[in-house]
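Sequence in, structure out. Go.
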Amino acid sequence: MSDVRHVANRPSWHCATCDEPWPCRERQIKFLEDYQGRRHFLRALLALWMYEAAEEMGVSAGDLHERFVGWSLTRR
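Output:
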């Protein structure tokens, strides 16, 4: 089972547990488990976080798309 402690440490947006860019692999797995059959809700939530992270990190949301949303489009 995935560890739910893999949360974003803001404003760096790195995982508070493993220090990988968030959402880290463990959190991605947990998201997929939690939103099984409702991936569109997950993507909407990830997009919101993507825009928050972009603002806090001072980068373009487009630069963060793959990190926050793109993985959810291809991962099963």
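Check: The first strand starts at residue 8 and ends at 9. Residues 23 and 40 are 17 Å apart (CA to CA).
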